[in-house]
């Protein structure tokens, strides 16, 4: 068993800077738990190779590495430039077109056919996560003329946002479904859904996979205003949440991003759904070996607010220092978690918030485990699990002890790699005595010895003959 020093999970976007076997190996050894493949970039054959490489390394290094397939969704993007980057200058004229042309600094192709209908004269448009701002001055057929309000460098395939506009596109596109087909064939089961608007989008994707006999884990990416508005329903319908601050910071006023992030994190925590905080976390490390103070603080605050995972995007996909960035993230997580362990920040808050909700037996079990961790010298919490629900429920208190989740379902193990403080172990064979299995495993791994205490959660079948959920706690003294 390899229990890292940090319990916050690390998601890395894989791209040209990180898709080689050597870099992938270093990323895994440095602490990457989840590899995000952004299907907006690279072709399927390239992605297939990366999937193979990650799988091979995961088994060679004996580490769970989950692959998150991030679907493109209806993201508007610019096309290709004949020479790049181009530089857009403040005050200059630039035209966007849906025609298939090679881009220049005055004429930029866009992949979105109904551009002219989605924009009005006088309205702002943003390029490259909002770094560049344009204002629409005139619309003529397929040509949208603009003036550059905030200039900067622009390269191929960067995003285009028109905040608040009607888009006429379903959040789950035909292209997304093709990618889902490909991913399911490759055995992937964790999906990121971009530009979600409502719970219906999640239900649709889940039904699509179910029709093919597959049960998938859906991470709803919150990156537009409608998603923030419908957040309760979206959290209920999805398995996890990503706060996709790149697009979100353009689609809603950027000054609202910090509080929206806090609110969503808390709501997802209450329902035990894992949260990934994404984009620009250590952005300056794309170019530099050290992050800014503000970035280090952003990572720490996301952890203190209750994120399960922190994500790297360009830093690992195209940055100069992918491995160093992961190591930096790990160091910030360790320091922040140590502080949390001392201050008990969050545990009381979570208990108080939960008491205001409608609670069940499994909630009470998770509270009692966390109470016991405050009082007794307990080394680990051991949770046999089918769906992952029990370890997730315990994890939401952000304990400073590992939750060792044992499951006979390999997919559950991979899905738990996103969950704070949960270490999943796949159990191949049928089990009739979880206590013997777990204690034997921990002893052989050398992580417990005589006199150590662990907690084991168990599910006793209910009296009515139905399998019960988790309804028992056992305190075990290791002999
Ligand atoms: N597989 C890849 N191949 C080439 N470039 C990539 C790849 N993955 C990511 N990138 C680059 O890294 C940058 C940051 O990655 P990120 O995944 O945040 O993409 P994005 O285009 O901003 O869109 P999204 O909103 O889908 O995240 C992108 O702008 C892109 O240039
Ligand atoms: C990750 C992502 O899609 C975003 O930040 O917009
Ligand atoms: K995407
Ligand atoms: Mg996005």
TrEMBL record:
What is this enzyme's catalytic activity, as reactions? pyruvate + ATP = phosphoenolpyruvate + ADP + H(+)
Q: Which gene encodes it?
A: pyk
Entry similarity comment: Belongs to the pyruvate kinase family.
What lineage is on file?
A: Archaea, Methanobacteriati, Methanobacteriota, Stenosarchaea group, Methanomicrobia
Q: Mind telling me which SUPFAM superfamilies this protein's record contains?
A: Phosphoenolpyruvate/pyruvate domain (SSF51621), PK beta-barrel domain-like (SSF50800), PK C-terminal domain-like (SSF52935)
| UniProt xrefs under NCBIfam families | PRK05826.1 (NF004491), PRK06354.1 (NF004978), pyruv_kin (TIGR01064)
Molecular function in Gene Ontology: ATP binding; kinase activity; magnesium ion binding; potassium ion binding; pyruvate kinase activity
Name of protein:
Pyruvate kinase
Query: Which pathway does UniProt place it in?
Result: Carbohydrate degradation; glycolysis; pyruvate from D-glyceraldehyde 3-phosphate: step 5/5
**Keyword rRNA processing, does the record have it?**
no
- Residue span of the signal peptide, if any? none
Looking at the record, the residues that make up the Pyruvate kinase C-terminal domain are 364-474
Question: What species is this protein from?
Answer: Methanolobus zinderi
């Amino acid at each position: 068993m390899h229990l890292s020093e940090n319990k916050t999970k690390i998601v890395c976007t894989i791209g040209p800077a990180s898709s080689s076997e050597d870099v992938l190996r270093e990323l895994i050894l440095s602490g990457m738990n989840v590899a995000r493949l952004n299907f907006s970039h690279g072709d399927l054959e390239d992605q297939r190779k990366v999937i193979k490489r990650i799988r091979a390394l995961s088994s060679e290094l004996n580490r769970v590495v989950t692959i998150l397939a991030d679907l493109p969704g209806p993201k508007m993007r610019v096309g290709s430039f004949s020479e790049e980057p181009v530089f857009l200058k403040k005050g200059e004229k630039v035209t966007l077109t849906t025609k298939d042309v090679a881009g220049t600094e005055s004429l930029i192709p866009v992949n979105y056919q109904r551009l002219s209908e989605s924009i009005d004269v006088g309205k702002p448009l943003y390029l490259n996560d909002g770094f560049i701002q344009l204002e629409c001055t005139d619309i003529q057929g397929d040509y949208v003329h603009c003036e550059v309000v905030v200039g900067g460098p622009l390269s191929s395939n960067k995003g285009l946002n028109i905040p608040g506009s009607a888009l006429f596109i379903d959040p789950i596109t035909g292209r997304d479904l093709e990618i889902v087909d490909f991913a399911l064939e490759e055995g992937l089961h964790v999906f990121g859904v971009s530009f979600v608007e409502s719970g219906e989008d999640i239900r649709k994707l889940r039904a699509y996979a179910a029709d093919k006999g597959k049960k998938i884990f859906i991470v709803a990416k919150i990156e537009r205003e409608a998603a923030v508005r419908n957040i309760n329903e979206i959290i209920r319908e999805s398995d996890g949440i990503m706060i996709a601050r790149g697009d979100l910071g353009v689609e809603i006023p950027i000054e609202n991003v910090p509080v929206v992030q806090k609110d969503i994190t808390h709501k997802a925590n209450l329902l035990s759904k894992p949260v990934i905080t994404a984009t620009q976390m250590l952005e300056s490390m794309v170019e530099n070996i050290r992050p800014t103070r503000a970035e280090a603080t952003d990572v720490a605050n996301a952890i203190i607010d209750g994120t399960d995972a922190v994500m790297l995007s360009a830093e690992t996909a195209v940055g100069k220092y992918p491995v160093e960035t992961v190591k930096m993230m790990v160091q910030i997580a360790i320091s922040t978690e140590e502080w949390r362990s001392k201050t008990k920040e969050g545990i009381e808050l979570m208990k108080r918030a939960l008491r205001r909700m409608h609670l069940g037996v499994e909630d009470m079990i998770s509270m009692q485990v966390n109470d016991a961790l405050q009082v007794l010298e307990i080394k680990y919490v051991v949770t046999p699990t089918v769906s992952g629900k029990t370890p997730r429920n315990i994890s939401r208190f952000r304990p400073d002890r590992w939750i060792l989740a044992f499951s006979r379902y390999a997919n559950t193990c991979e899905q738990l790699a996103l969950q704070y403080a949960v270490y999943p172990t796949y159990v191949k064979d049928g089990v009739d005595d979880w206590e013997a299995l777990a204690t034997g495993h921990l002893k052989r791994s050398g992580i417990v010895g005589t006199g150590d205490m662990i907690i084991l959660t168990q599910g006793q079948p209910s009296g009515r003959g139905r399998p019960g959920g988790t309804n028992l706690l056992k305190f075990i003294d290791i002999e």
